Amino acid sequence: MVVVFFGTPQFAVPTLRCLLDSHHRVCGVVSQPDRPRGRGQRVTDAPVKALAVERGLPVIQPEKLKEPAVAETLRTWAPDIGVVTAYGRLIPDSLIAIPRFGMINVHASLLPKYRGAAPVHRAVIDGETVTGVTIMRVASQLDAGDMFARATRPIGPNETSDTVERDLGELGAHLLLATLDAIERGTAAAQQQDHTAVTYAQKITRGDGLLDWNLPAPAIHNRVRGLYPWPHAFTFLDGSRIIVLRTHLEPAVTAAAPGTIVAVTRNAIHVATGERGQIAIDEIQPEGKRAMPVRDYLAGRPLAAGARFTSS
Questions:
Q1: What backbone phi and psi angles, to 5 degrees, belong to 59?
Q2: Domain map of the chain by residue range?
């Protein structure tokens, strides 16, 4: 089949690559406009656009999908079906109607849970032990279309969102290809979502990273790994912002106010929490400095038990 592909970030790259290596033909790519990226905030190609340019595919990057030129271009490309993977915006009905088989989407959750912008981050933050991908029809309502296929993946207790998302990208790519082949053969069957079981994964912001030490230790640990590698969990020590990159859980060894450093060892800073154990910080990034193991941080700034992490 002739496929028009909508996608922007790294998560979508495996799906586009699988399509390009299959017997289907990608007629063109729709990606979001180039944005400033990285620490230097330079304007660079998003991962999907970079792959499309490398493979010689036509690419359009409209500011708004309702621009008449977008529909005109899609009609010129004459796709049989559209594939949407982490494009980042709702697709209007006028575009969904152009391909004769409509559009299908690769979504990084087990729908109907975690509809929305940040399904992987929110699943890790919530302490989910299993996640997955869903291939569904693109519908007017956000992530509400009928489902063609789902595949699961466990989430380890110390895994971070980047690792989970990377694996789901590969899993979704192969599941998408199998679904596309079934649609081509006329054997694909779609199942309606259970709309009474819907949850939403709200967009992640920098403010989500502020740690509340009054929470139980597992909730703090899950937030740290769920917000890695962006925007990161953070806290304050003597008024300076500290990014918390890696932690692990351990039993509480002494009673102390949440946020209090109860012990400092060679490789970790041990911190009291609201309940259910305590947190050991293994890797941090002081404000204006590089990320480093705790042992390197302690070499330049010795800490003692009794100091306290705060929210400001």
A1: -130, 135
A2: 2-201, 206-310
N- to C-terminal Cα separation, the chain: 55
Contact 252, 274 (CB under 8 A): no
Give the predicted TM-score (pTM) of the model. Answer: 0.95
Strands (E), the chain: 2-7, 25-30, 35-37, 42-44, 59-60, 81-85, 103-107, 115-116, 130-137, 147-154, 200-201, 233-237, 240-250, 261-264, 269-272, 278-286, 292-293, 309-310
For 169-223, write each residue's pLDDT tens digit.
999 999 999 999 999 999 999 999 999 999 999 999 999 999 999 999 999 999 9
- Out of 3.40.50.720, 1.10.287.1260, 3.10.25.10, 3.30.1140.32, the CATH code matching 206-310 is 3.10.25.10
Residues of the chain with pLDDT under 50: none
DSSP code, position 260: B
Copy the structure tokens of residue 119.
């399904």
> What type of residue is 258?
P
Domain 2-201 has CATH 1.25.40.10: no
Please give the Cα distance from 105 to 113 (Å, whole number). Answer: 15
